[in-house]
Design brief:
The chain has helices spanning 23-30, 45-60, 110-125, 140-148, 175-178; strands spanning 8-10, 13-17, 66-73, 78-87, 94-101, 130-136, 152-159, 164-172. By secondary structure, it is α+β, with helices and mostly antiparallel strands. An eight-stranded mixed β-sheet has the order 1-2-3-4-5-6-8-7, sandwiched between helices. Strand 7 and strand 8 (164-172) form a beta hairpin. Helix 1 packs across helix 2. The longest helix has 16 residues, at 45-60. The two termini are 28 Å apart.
């Protein structure tokens, strides 16, 4: 699995496939109501353990549905967030990505560098042709960041389950990330 999803690095940011040592970060992120405001309800302790174990099992699965990366700054010394890739069962050349950065590291460009690094890897080292991102419409910072990274709005819709407006962004394998 780790051969398929290697550690990635760019501009002082490192993305490493999540491992057992990342439980406390996972818990800190997914139980923080402020970080989760654009994701959903924070998880209980029981949900955290269940979801973390499921995520770790995906990391070692020969055919994962998704993979999480832990985001580090300064040569893997400081954990600052998580990013992930959800593989599409129907279209093998399409993935959805997401990212959550700890509040104290917001507005430093780390999310942009992390997402750009992951996108570059996916477009240059795999058969991925399109990447999508789904955000709450109210999450202006994330939506602005997606636009700066070259994503275009694919659709706006109302999430009927949560009654929340969302935007689905998409980007196709482009010269920006393939250096062609």
């Amino acid at each position: 699995m780790h051969k398929k999803f290697p550690t990635l690095q760019s501009d002082g940011i490192y993305l490493k496939p999540m491992c057992l040592d990342d439980f406390e970060l996972f818990k800190e992120i997914y139980q923080d109501s402020e970080l989760m405001r654009y994701v959903g309800t924070p998880f209980t302790d029981k949900e955290i353990s269940k979801r973390f174990n499921k995520a770790i099992n995906q990391q070692i699965n020969s055919r994962p549905k998704y993979i999480y990366y832990t985001i580090f700054k300064n040569e893997r010394k400081i954990k600052i967030g998580l990013t992930g890739v959800q593989l599409n069962k129907i279209k093998s050349n399409h993935v959805e990505i997401g990212i959550i950065i700890l509040e104290q590291f917001h507005r430093n460009g780390y999310a942009h560098i992390s997402k750009s690094t992951l996108m570059h890897y996916l477009f240059t080292s795999t058969n991925i042709k399109t990447i999508s991102v789904t955000c709450y419409k109210a999450n202006k910072a994330a939506n602005n960041a997606n636009e700066k990274l070259g994503f275009e709005i694919d659709k706006e819709y109302l999430d009927k389950k949560n009654k929340i407006s969302k935007i689905r962004w998409i980007i196709h394998n482009s010269k920006i990330y393939t250096n062609e």
